[in-house]
């Protein structure tokens, strides 16, 4: 009896049920015949979901992270995986150790991690350039020595390829049937939606956009879903809304499980992606934008190089200058006051997902990468048959 090849997807930072690593990569691999274990943050207990075994880790901060990393590595080794798929930059030293021990290792570089260091509020401002250089040095040392590297965007891929890494781009696009536009005539009580991470700079931007939009569409109703990265940021956001008289119009609620995002977007007329013009976002493109497009939500996003290049020729979203809150408000107001225009934009967005921005295409890339890995001969033969 031929046993299926095994893969262990490991993170100490991301949730075990992360959208990319669980809902897309792990489930795709499981459907293709791989035996998949995901080790990551989860309240537990261990479970098997959609053919994927989930091994929970506790959340950890500060020195406790080192303890959790060691535990995670022991759990990963216990799976006897043919492939170790690591998603955290802080696990790169472990990735190098695994590789030197003869294991097959993939680094899933989901963010531009060096640039991300400039945005980490917990790192003192004067140390952020040092952190950026240190992370870049670690990636430059380790990534070329691994069997494969995945990125979610072309800019990060180009940087890692320049250092000699074997890189494939697997975009964070939704599956075609993951989101669907609601039926015509279905009520959409949310005028503007945002879901995802909520650092202080996103909250500040949305408070300013909401204030400017209220001058054009006084009754605009917002729904913002996510967890602010600090109590200070949350309080500052609430105070800004109160000063503008918008506390009743802008609703902030905590994170929701990924399956609930579908219902959230089904009730929204427009979606906003107000990224600042900083190094990370000139490269990384957030997956929420493509979820808006897939769900038939008219999208307004910052006009940044990575986003502009990816959307080129699609006319799938309105792009406005990053940091120009009045321009965001003007674009949203035009869509809210002209339902026909908003519907046409939403149709173009959905068409772009059907044609280009869908997981089905990215899944093929993922499976080709796995089929080409230098595993033991039997595993590689089975992986090649899976993608054939």
Quick structural gist:
This protein is α/β, with parallel strands linked by helices.
Structural features, described:
With 388 residues, the chain is α/β, with parallel strands linked by helices. The protein has two domains: 6-173 and 359-387, Glycogen Phosphorylase B (Rossmann fold, 3-Layer(aba) Sandwich); 190-355, Rossmann fold (3-Layer(aba) Sandwich). Helices cover 45% and strands 18% of the residues. The chain is built from 16 helices and 14 strands. Strands 3-4-2-1-5-6-7-8 form an eight-stranded mixed β-sheet, sandwiched between helices. A hairpin with a 2-residue loop joins β3 (47-49) and β4 (52-57). The longest helix has 17 residues, at 339-355. The mean pLDDT is 94.
List the helices and strands and how they pair.
Blueprint: E1 6-15, H1 19-31, E2 35-41, E3 47-49, E4 52-57, H2 64-78, E5 83-86, H3 92-100, E6 104-109, H4 113-116, H5 128-142, E7 148-151, H6 154-162, E8 167-169, E9 190-195, H7 200-214, E10 222-225, H8 231-243, E11 250-253, H9 258-266, E12 268-273, H10 279-283, H11 287-294, E13 298-302, H12 305-311, E14 318-320, H13 325-337, H14 339-355, H15 359-371, H16 377-387
Parallel strand pairs: 1-2, 1-5, 2-4, 5-6, 6-7, 7-8, 9-10, 9-12, 10-11, 12-13, 13-14
Antiparallel strand pairs: 3-4
């Amino acid at each position: 009896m031929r046993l299926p090849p095994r893969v262990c997807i490991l993170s100490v930072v991301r949730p075990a049920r992360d959208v990319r690593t669980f809902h897309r990569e792990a489930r795709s691999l499981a459907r293709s015949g791989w035996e998949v274990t995901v080790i990551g943050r989860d309240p537990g207990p261990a479970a098997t979901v959609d053919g994927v075994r989930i091994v929970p880790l506790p959340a950890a901060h500060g020195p406790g992270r080192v303890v959790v990393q060691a535990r995670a590595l022991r759990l990963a080794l216990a799976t006897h995986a043919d492939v170790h798929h690591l998603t955290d930059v802080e696990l790169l030293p472990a990735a190098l150790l695994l590789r030197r021990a003869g294991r097959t290792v993939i680094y899933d570089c989901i963010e531009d991690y060096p640039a991300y260091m400039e945005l980490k509020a917990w790192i003192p401002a004067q140390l952020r350039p040092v952190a950026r250089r240190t992370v870049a040095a670690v990636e430059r040392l380790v990534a070329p020595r691994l069997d494969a590297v995945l990125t979610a965007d072309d800019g990060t891929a180009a940087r890692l390829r320049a250092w000699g890494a074997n890189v494939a781009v697997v975009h964070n696009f939704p599956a075609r049937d993951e989101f669907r536009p609601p039926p015509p005539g279905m009520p959409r009580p949310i005028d503007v939606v945002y879901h995802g991470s909520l650092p202080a700079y996103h909250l500040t931007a949305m408070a300013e956009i909401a204030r400017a939009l209220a001058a054009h569409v006084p009754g605009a109703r917002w729904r913002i879903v996510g967890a602010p990265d600090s109590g200070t940021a949350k309080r500052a956001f609430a105070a800004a809304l109160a000063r503008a008289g918008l506390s009743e119009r802008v609703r902030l609620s905590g994170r929701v499980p990924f399956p609930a995002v579908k219902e959230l977007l089904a009730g929204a007329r427009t979606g906003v992606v107000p990224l600042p013009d900083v190094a990370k976002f000139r490269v990384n493109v957030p997956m929420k934008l493509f979820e808006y497009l897939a769900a038939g939500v008219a999208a307004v996003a910052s006009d940044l190089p990575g986003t502009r290049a990816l959307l080129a020729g699609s006319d799938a979203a309105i792009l406005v200058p990053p940091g120009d809150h009045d321009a965001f408000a003007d674009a949203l107001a035009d869509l809210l006051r002209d339902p026909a225009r908003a519907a046409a934009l939403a149709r173009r967005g959905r068409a772009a997902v059907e044609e280009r921005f869908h997981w089905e295409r990215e899944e093929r890339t993922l499976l080709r990468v796995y089929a080409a890995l230098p595993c033991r001969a039997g595993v590689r033969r089975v992986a090649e048959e899976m993608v054939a």
